[in-house]
């Protein structure tokens, strides 16, 4: 078989590990040939490819990002996009596609499967918000990066007797904030799943100031106050209809400083969470996903996504994986609230 591989959406630690595993097993065990599509769905849309054999995947396991490049291209928003993809796949002799991505990338994959394009999906997102899988690779790396930042910020906050607000990624799901905040000993954790009461946040902070320690607040970029909305950077939307978020951390720091009379600073981790070397957990998970994805392709089991259930890798329908986001249950936030204040 001649198989195309693409990576779409935001870059994520572990993408290269998936690509490496797919190619290594696909070539050595099954004798398949691979073609890399550049920059997500733009690649098959424009027929933009690069060689993808064993020599091309050597040494990429520890590298962050993706050697194939990525984009947020949505072929269903482009006139004749699906027909162009089908024509390019036929011209290139592609028998199947492996799409590595999050909700948007795999949403396109699910629609293409219904239209007769043979696709197998691999779940990728640092937000860990894809349904049907217990964990996505990239999440563990993002949490560890955020946790290390929080660890460092504790000491500078205490030295200057100030509040530090740490803004982490998470548009609709607060898994990064919950895990990094809990692991980093944050005094308040604010998630998109539950609107926060600013008065209560200030109360927690003032309680913390009564000790010799200083408050650390971890907030997801999509978190909202009880009487407000998401803080955005302009109203421009991407190809999948997402507005660019950012600014809730600074807004919160300003409000805290105004209400407590003590200095507050905002730290936005942003794309630092997505870059750099993947953790051991993410390397192993991504590798296993890649190995099982090429098995599914070889067996002709299309329209599926590989997923982690417990410690096993299973296959689930793409439509199930993209049906709804996996958000943080109220009970998980309640566990963390024991440590607030």
From TrEMBL:
Q: Which PROSITE patterns match?
A: PHOSPHOFRUCTOKINASE
| Site positions for Important for catalytic activity and substrate specificity | 104
Enzyme Commission identifier(s): 2.7.1.90
* Annotated binding of diphosphate, by residue: 10
GO terms for biological process, alphabetical: canonical glycolysis; fructose 1,6-bisphosphate metabolic process; fructose 6-phosphate metabolic process
State a GO cellular component annotated for this protein: 6-phosphofructokinase complex
State if Metal-binding is listed as a keyword: yes
Binding-site list for Mg(2+): 103
The cofactor named in the record is: Mg(2+)
Q: Give the positions of the site Important for catalytic activity.
A: 124
- Note the superkingdom of the native organism: Bacteria
Per the record, the major location class is: cytoplasm
Q: In which pathway does it act?
A: Carbohydrate degradation; glycolysis; D-glyceraldehyde 3-phosphate and glycerone phosphate from D-glucose: step 3/4
Enumerate the catalysed reactions. beta-D-fructose 6-phosphate + diphosphate = beta-D-fructose 1,6-bisphosphate + phosphate + H(+)
Among InterPro entries, the record links this protein to:
ATP_PFK, ATP_PFK_prok-type, Phosphofructokinase_CS, Phosphofructokinase_dom, Phosphofructokinase_III, PKF_sf
Kindly give the HAMAP family that the UniProt entry links to this protein. Phosphofructokinase_III
Which purpose does this protein serve, as stated in its record?
Catalyzes the phosphorylation of D-fructose 6-phosphate, the first committing step of glycolysis. Uses inorganic phosphate (PPi) as phosphoryl donor instead of ATP like common ATP-dependent phosphofructokinases (ATP-PFKs), which renders the reaction reversible, and can thus function both in glycolysis and gluconeogenesis. Consistently, PPi-PFK can replace the enzymes of both the forward (ATP-PFK) and reverse (fructose-bisphosphatase (FBPase)) reactions.
The family annotation for this protein states: Belongs to the phosphofructokinase type A (PFKA) family. Mixed-substrate PFK group III subfamily.
Return the protein name.
Answer: Pyrophosphate--fructose 6-phosphate 1-phosphotransferase
Q: Which organism is it from?
A: Longispora fulva
Per UniProt, what is the name of the gene that codes for the protein in this document? pfp
């Amino acid at each position: 078989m001649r198989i195309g591989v693409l990576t779409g959406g935001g870059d994520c630690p572990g993408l290269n590990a998936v690509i490496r595993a797919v190619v290594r097993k696909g070539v050595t065990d099954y004798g398949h040939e691979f073609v890399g599509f550049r920059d997500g769905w733009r690649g098959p849309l424009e027929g933009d490819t690069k060689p993808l054999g064993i020599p091309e995947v050597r040494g990429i396991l520890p590298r962050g990002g993706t050697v194939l490049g990525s984009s947020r291209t949505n072929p269903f928003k482009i006139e004749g996009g699906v027909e162009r993809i089908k024509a390019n796949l036929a011209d290139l002799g592609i028998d199947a596609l492996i799409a590595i991505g999050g909700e948007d990338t795999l949403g396109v994959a699910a629609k293409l499967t219904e239209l007769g394009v043979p696709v197998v999906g691999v779940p990728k997102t640092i937000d860990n918000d894809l349904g049907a899988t217990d964990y996505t690779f990239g999440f563990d790396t993002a949490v560890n990066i955020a946790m290390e930042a929080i660890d460092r910020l504790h000491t500078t906050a205490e030295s200057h007797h100030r509040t530090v607000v740490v803004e982490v990624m998470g548009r609709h799901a607060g898994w990064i904030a919950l895990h990094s905040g809990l692991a980093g000993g944050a005094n308040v954790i604010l998630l998109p799943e539950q609107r926060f009461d600013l008065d209560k946040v200030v109360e927690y902070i003032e309680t913390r100031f009564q000790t010799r320690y200083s408050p650390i607040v971890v907030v997801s970029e999509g978190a909202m106050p009880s009487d407000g909305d998401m803080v955005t950077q302009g109203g421009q939307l991407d190809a999948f209809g997402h507005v660019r978020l950012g600014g809730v951390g600074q807004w919160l720091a300003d409000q805290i400083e105004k209400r407590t009379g003590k200095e507050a600073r905002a730290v936005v981790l942003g794309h630092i969470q997505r870059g750099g070397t993947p953790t051991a957990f993410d390397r192993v998970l991504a590798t296993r996903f890649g190995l099982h994805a090429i098995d599914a392709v070889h067996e002709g089991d299309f329209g599926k996504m590989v997923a982690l259930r417990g410690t096993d890798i299973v296959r689930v329908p793409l439509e199930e994986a993209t049906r709804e986001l996996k958000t943080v249950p109220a009970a998980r936030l309640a566990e963390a609230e024991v440590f607030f204040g």
